[in-house]
Amino acid sequence: MTVTIDDIRAAADLIEGRVLRTPSFRSEPLSVISGAHVVLKLENLQYTSSFKPRGALVKLLSLSDGEKKAGVVAASAGNHAQGVAFHAQNLGIPATIYMPVGTPFTKVGRTESMGADVVLEGEGLKEARENAQVFADTNNKIFIHPYDDEKIIAGQGTVGLEMLTDHPDLDCLLLPIGGGGLMAGSAIAAKALKPDIEIIGVEASAYPSMKCAINGQADTSGGQTIAEGIAVKVPGELTRPIIEKLISDVLLVEESELENAVQTYIETQRLIVEGAGAATLAALLGNKERFKGRRVGLVVSGGNIDSRLLSSILMRGLVREGRLVRLRIGITDAPGVLAKVTGLIGECGGNIVEVYHQRLFQDIPVKLADVDVVIETLDARHVAQIIAGLENSGFRTRQLGGMSMDNNSG
Questions:
Q1: Which of 333, 351, 243 is nearest to 342 (CA)?
Q2: How many CB atoms lie within 10 A of CB 188?
C-alpha cells in the first residue's frame, strides 16, 4: 500500500489551520428516519464547499520552489478546480485550470475569482484532462491529478482520520466514490484507527466504474446524473487496489434516490448538499434494514449545487410527495362556476398556486371548459380528499402527472 496512516497524519499536520476541521455530529432527524445512529461529517462547510482543498494543499506544499514558480495545471468541472485554485492563490503559485466547454458559468467564474486562469476545452472531463496534461508537459508545469496521486490521497484521508478521532464508536463508514481519492485515503485512516470498522462506498448507478472494476465486470458508465462530482468513467490506478482491499461493498444509488437525499438534507438539517455529497444518505435510506441500529458515519463531501438544479429538485420532491399537484377539472363555461371550484378547493384546505383556464385549444364542447389548477397540499392523502370533494360536487377531476392517487390513497 503506497499511502500509510503516518502519511495521513503528516498531511493532517500540514493542513492544520489552513483547511477547516469540519464538524461531525450525530443527526437525530436522520437517525429517526433511517433507523440507524447517524453521524454526519460536513465537508460542504469548507470554504470551497467540498473536501477537495485538503488534498490540493498537501500536493501543492510538496512542490519544490522551482515547481511552484513554474506553476500548476489541473482539470476539473468544479470542486477540484476550486480546491487547487484557492490554495495556489494563497501560496502564490500560478494555476491554470482546464474545464469542459459546457461547464456552468458560475463554476468558471468562481474558479477565476480565486486567481486561476481557466481554459475551456473538450466536450467532457476526459478531453479536458487530456488537454491539460499536454499543456502541463509542454510548458514544464506540474499536473495536479484529482485523485491518482499519493499526496492527494493522503490529504483526502484526513477526512476519515478526523471522523474516527471524533467518533471512534462508529460501526460503519459510508463514503462516495468518484475516482476514489477520498475513499482510499479515508479507508486507510479508518482501518488504522479501528480495524473492524466496515467501510462501504457509494456510486451513482449511472457511473458504477469502481464497482465494475473491482468485480471484474464490464463498465456501463455514462449518461446524465445530478452527482457530477462522482461521475467518473475510469477509476484511479492508485486508488483502486486500496479500495478493493479495504472496503466491503459498493452500493449504487438511482437518480430519484439522490434527489430525495438532497431534499432530505435541506428539510431535516437545513444543509445545502450537492448530488455527490448526498449519495451516502441516499444509500443509507435505500438500505435501511442493512444499517438498522448500527452507528453509521456519512461523509457529506460537498455542497456545490447549481441553484436552478436545486430549485428543480425541491419542486420535483414536492410533486413526488403529493405536496404540489396539478388537477384538471371539468366545468361548465358559465359565470361563477370557476369561483365555486376555487371555493371548494379552499374549503378542503388546498392552496391554489396557479390556474389555467382552457377554452379554445381543447377537444371539448363549446359550453364546457377545463381548468388546470396547481395546488399546494399537505400530502397525497390530502390530494385525494380534495379530488373527492370536487367530484362529490359534480366536477369531473383528475390529477395530471406525478404519482397516481391509486398508489397513494391507502
A1: 351
A2: 28
Q: What is the pLDDT along the chain (410 residues), one digit of tens a residue?
A: 589 999 999 999 999 999 999 999 999 999 999 999 999 999 999 999 999 999 999 999 999 999 999 999 999 878 999 999 999 999 999 999 999 887 777 788 889 999 999 999 988 778 889 999 999 999 999 999 999 999 999 999 999 999 999 999 999 999 999 999 999 999 999 999 999 999 999 999 999 999 999 998 988 888 889 998 898 888 899 999 999 999 999 999 999 999 999 999 999 999 999 999 999 999 999 999 999 999 999 999 999 988 889 999 988 888 888 889 999 998 887 888 888 989 999 999 999 988 887 665 555 555 678 889 999 999 889 999 999 999 999 999 999 875 433 333 33
What DSSP state is assigned to residue 3?
S
What are the start-end ranges of the H helices in 194-332? 209-214, 239-246, 255-264, 279-286, 288-291, 307-320
- Cα–Cα distance between 187 and 197 in angstroms, integer? 9
Pairing verdict, β 198-204 and 249-253: parallel
d(CA 347, CA 292): 42
Query: Distance between CA atoms of 346 and 367, rounded to whole angstroms?
Result: 25
Q: Are 141 and 135 in contact (CB under 8 A)?
A: yes
Closest C-alpha to 201, from 183, 217, 215: 183
What torsion do the CA atoms of 266, 272, 275, 279 make, to the nearest 10 degrees?
-60
The domains of the chain, with CATH numbers, are 5-51+150-316 (3.40.50.1100), 54-143 (3.40.50.1100), 321-407 (3.30.70.260)
| Distances, alpha carbon 381 to alpha carbons 9, 24, 408, in Å | 53, 37, 7
Sheet holding 172-176, edge to edge: 24-26, 37-42, 295-300, 172-176, 198-204, 249-253
